[in-house]
Amino acid sequence: MEKEATEDTKKQIQISYDNDWLNAYYDPVAGTNSHSGSIELADILADGDNKLVTANYSHVKSELKLKVFKGASLIKENNLVDVPTAIISFFMDNLQPRVPAIGVASGSSIFVYKNLRPSFQFTLPQVDVSGVEKDIWAKAKDGTADIATMHDTLEDIRRGGQITLSNRSILMLGLSNDEARRFVDVFKNSELKRNVIITCLAKMNKSSPDEDAINVLLVGTELKTIYVIDTEAFTILATMECPHIPVFLNASGLFDVEFRVIAACRDGCLYTYKRGFKSPKSTIPLSSQIVGIEKSGKNVIVGCMDRSIYCYTTKGKKLWRLEMPADILTISGMEIKSKGIQGYIISLNNNEVHVYNEKNILSKFKTQDTVVGIKFGKFGREESNLIMTTRNGGLIIKILKRAAELKPKDAHGGPPEAQLKKLDIPKKTKLYVDQTTRERDNAILMHQTFQKDLYKFRIKTAKEFLRSLQTSTTPISTNPNEPLKINAQVQGIGPTFKLIVKVQNISTTAPSLNLFMTFIYDDKLYKIPKSLIELPILIPGIEYPFSTFIYSISNQLISDNIKVLLCKKDSNVPIITAIISMPVSEAEF
Amino acid sequence: MDPFFMACSLFRRRKFEECTKICTQILDKNPYDQSAWVLKMRALTEQVYIDEVEIDEDGIAEMLDENAVAQISRPGTSLRAVSASQNSLSMAMRPVSQSGRPLSGAVRPATQSNRPGTMEQAIKTPRSAYTARPLTSSSGRFVRLGTASMLSSPEQFINLSRLNFTKYADVPNLAKPLFEFIFYHENDVRNALQMAALATEACQFNDWWWKVQLGKCYYRLGLFREAEKQYLSALKQNPIVDTYLYLSKVYVKLDQPLNSINRLKEANEKFPFEISLLQGIARIYEALGDNTECMKYYREVLQTDSTNIEAIACIATNYFYNDQPEVALKFYRRLLQMGVYNSEIFNNIGLCCFYAQQYDMILSCFERALSLANNDLQLADVWYNLGHVALGVGDSSLAYQCFRLCLVYNNDSIEAYNNLGVLEMAHSRNDLARSFFQAAQSLGSNVFEPNFNNAYLAHTTGDLQTCYQSLKKAIEIFPNHASTKDLLKELEQKFSVL
């Protein structure tokens, strides 16, 4: 048994110390608080040297930053106005040399940076608010609305779920009456509009399949829409309606020819769109919330909160499911063209990162911290880098060894290993055989003796049980009139102890009334100041604690039992009793 | 007859009270009679003498002990965090004591108690003489024996505060009895230490005996590193069994069980067939939860001394919990033949008979166990086991009565509460069952069954929150429990589903 256990651990160690990767860099305090969607690798200076761009979120506004790393060193930092939700690198012109722009989505705008400098801000058009809400604010403007009723109507609308409120209304709902009044006074005159908050970004090529061709951006918003934005002129080319708010987007194909967009939404469904359609072509409902999506060939890989990776065809047919040992935190795609490897990388809550191709694990390793953001690609001049950001803002960079062969590792057939393990069942001894022979030979006699003993034993037990009930020495009473349970504990090291008695009414309906608690003790040894405790009405099912102090007044190191009696007024027999063997007092009184 | 000769003779015959009386008379006549003075000291010491090697109950003050080097130790190297988690399935096979150690075959100091993790836990632990109770070092056996003898002789024999230690330290014949008197009779460790320090200096650090005594003093004072130094130095001069045992105790205190075992093994090479050394090794292995090694050493003990009760009992227990009750039965019968005649032995034989299907013997054994029991806890145990027999027979109302009787004698019996809960659950009286499980949960923090059962009950009634909380507790106590893990997985799936 033990031997096998050690073998088992050895095997695990072999896999977890995977040597396909070189540890290039680890900085636990790099300050890169970014998720997979806000890490980019791009040649933003067009010098053939890919830079790492991360957009960092934080609660502190001054720490909202866009950071650019060259190798391990930070070369540029830009302050951000609002919390970034996603960043993306894209080509927006046909100029030579090809310099990609970086788009940072935050709030309702996309900030475009080029050559390490901010160059353009694109804000999504604002949307009109619903008529009902407009009416409410119009009344507020006139000064005819009462703040409380306004609050209530807005709250009703919010709960109704049919209409999405504007930010202003939502902010107002969170305020107290006084604050709300001031809030309304300040804002009632400005025009009521709804800002469109961006949730995610994706890109696809516009008309040419070349790698450095002009892109269009796909923008998912809180308004349940996906916009396709032309990056040359920054105009909205197309709008797609989503049944729910999209949080992850994946796009492939060419916008002008044929494309397919997959959107993962907050209702736990995947929706696929094709060129020319405003509404989704197919819907894939999942059993759990989505953590990330990735394309693998023609299929979609979805990581879910139920620790599973699912694979679906774009038509919505489930192909397979993989279960992970821990919660999945993020998923990112991986492609090494030179080796013809395509796969995806997932990070788990137990500090492990796994690399998969379809459902075969290619590599797996432990990281120093929990990885929340992953990006695989060319960094510097080196292909095949793995950039990981950790939960505490650390940065880990690993390089895939050139000699590494990423091949499926656990392609084992046959029965699972556990089946081969032998159970540790002791052999039947000779003694046992002898005893069974005895049993066989004297079966009748043994049975008779046992049955006779059993009858006697039943009587004895019944007598004892009856006696215990008559003397009420049990800690549980099953008397249908007063079903109670008592349980006492002593705390402390002396000379002062605390006695805690817990009483519970174990009937289902009837409360217990008119009870009191008292103690039997040796008054030469102990002093109990509160020797009678009156119990309140006891509601069924709730444990009521009562406590009193016990002073040990003897200077000899001896201890005695104390009896706790639970009695009913006007009855001369206690209902139940608990006996406490007192510990020896550590100090003299 | 010369009264002093008479006193010597009485001392040899271990009639210490009378010996003391005669010496007192001699001293009344001549207060400067050194021989009478020494004899009286020795007689008084012998009365309260305790074997230092065996006393090992941890006190409440021990919790504040910071001698253990690693707070989070590697598995198998510490006595602190020993639980069934290390040997995967043991908890389901072998019950644990209230402090979470697997049950041992023999009750010794420290088999019942465990080092409590926190002060709060220590104070909270339900405490009676038989349960896991932390004692303070002051209320341990040392003081009680000391004060008991003080009470019997109201006028003090030697006033330590007036004693000039340097005067006696030079005279070895006087120094050693005086030291033992101070150490055992007066139980004044500080003065004893001062005495020993002066004496060892007086003999130019050449007497190993004084070093051992210094070690003992340091040990009592909780200065384990100093004690270790003294013992090691004494061993260099004169290796004897006792010193090795003391040293092993020091390492146990320092939470270095492997070191302790190594020392004992080293001693075992020098003194082969020495039972106390082998027993010491076996005990530490048992405390570490390493049953195979433990059994190996207990067997070695039996090879040397075939009547060693502790070894027989421990081996029997091991066989019983390893599913070979018929072998265990044989060991217990051997104990009975050796003259061990008490409630526990009949209880064990009854159980072995039951599980080895020798039905004609069971109830008569238990009956005898009931009649021999001399305290409530033994009665509670026997009734609890009878409850299991009743369950085996299939008479659940009889089992119910037995468990209730167990509770009469021991109000804190976690197992009985748990089983009552299960019985109530089988009769689908869920509210009652829940209250029993809750009682069991509140009583014991080291038993996983009530936690799991409560979770199971909560799961069937749809109270997933309680179910999850109880499961978390159960898995903390017994990480390898398959049913808990299954249920937990099911719950987690349920929670993550939309």
Automatic annotation (TrEMBL), chain A:
<feature type="domain" description="Bardet-Biedl syndrome 1 N-terminal">
    <location>
        <begin position="21"/>
        <end position="273"/>
    </location>
</feature>
<protein>
    <recommendedName>
        <fullName>BBS1</fullName>
    </recommendedName>
</protein>
<dbReference type="InterPro" id="IPR028784">
    <property type="entry name" value="BBS1"/>
</dbReference>
<dbReference type="GO" id="GO:1905515">
    <property type="term" value="P:non-motile cilium assembly"/>
</dbReference>
<dbReference type="Pfam" id="PF23304">
    <property type="entry name" value="GAE_BBS1"/>
</dbReference>
<dbReference type="Pfam" id="PF14779">
    <property type="entry name" value="BBS1"/>
</dbReference>
<dbReference type="GO" id="GO:0061512">
    <property type="term" value="P:protein localization to cilium"/>
</dbReference>
<dbReference type="GO" id="GO:0034464">
    <property type="term" value="C:BBSome"/>
</dbReference>
<dbReference type="InterPro" id="IPR036322">
    <property type="entry name" value="WD40_repeat_dom_sf"/>
</dbReference>
<dbReference type="InterPro" id="IPR032728">
    <property type="entry name" value="BBS1_N"/>
</dbReference>
<dbReference type="GO" id="GO:0005813">
    <property type="term" value="C:centrosome"/>
</dbReference>
<dbReference type="InterPro" id="IPR015943">
    <property type="entry name" value="WD40/YVTN_repeat-like_dom_sf"/>
</dbReference>
<dbReference type="GO" id="GO:0005113">
    <property type="term" value="F:patched binding"/>
</dbReference>
<feature type="domain" description="Bardet-Biedl syndrome 1 protein GAE">
    <location>
        <begin position="484"/>
        <end position="587"/>
    </location>
</feature>
<dbReference type="GO" id="GO:0005119">
    <property type="term" value="F:smoothened binding"/>
</dbReference>
<dbReference type="InterPro" id="IPR056419">
    <property type="entry name" value="GAE_BBS1"/>
</dbReference>
<dbReference type="GO" id="GO:0005930">
    <property type="term" value="C:axoneme"/>
</dbReference>
TrEMBL record, chain B:
<dbReference type="GO" id="GO:0036064">
    <property type="term" value="C:ciliary basal body"/>
</dbReference>
<feature type="repeat" description="TPR">
    <location>
        <begin position="343"/>
        <end position="376"/>
    </location>
</feature>
<dbReference type="InterPro" id="IPR019734">
    <property type="entry name" value="TPR_rpt"/>
</dbReference>
<dbReference type="GO" id="GO:0034464">
    <property type="term" value="C:BBSome"/>
</dbReference>
<keyword id="KW-0802">TPR repeat</keyword>
<dbReference type="GO" id="GO:0097730">
    <property type="term" value="C:non-motile cilium"/>
</dbReference>
<dbReference type="Pfam" id="PF13181">
    <property type="entry name" value="TPR_8"/>
</dbReference>
<dbReference type="InterPro" id="IPR011990">
    <property type="entry name" value="TPR-like_helical_dom_sf"/>
</dbReference>
<feature type="region of interest" description="Disordered">
    <location>
        <begin position="93"/>
        <end position="122"/>
    </location>
</feature>
<dbReference type="GO" id="GO:1905515">
    <property type="term" value="P:non-motile cilium assembly"/>
</dbReference>
<dbReference type="InterPro" id="IPR028796">
    <property type="entry name" value="BBS8"/>
</dbReference>
<protein>
    <recommendedName>
        <fullName>Tetratricopeptide repeat protein 8</fullName>
    </recommendedName>
</protein>
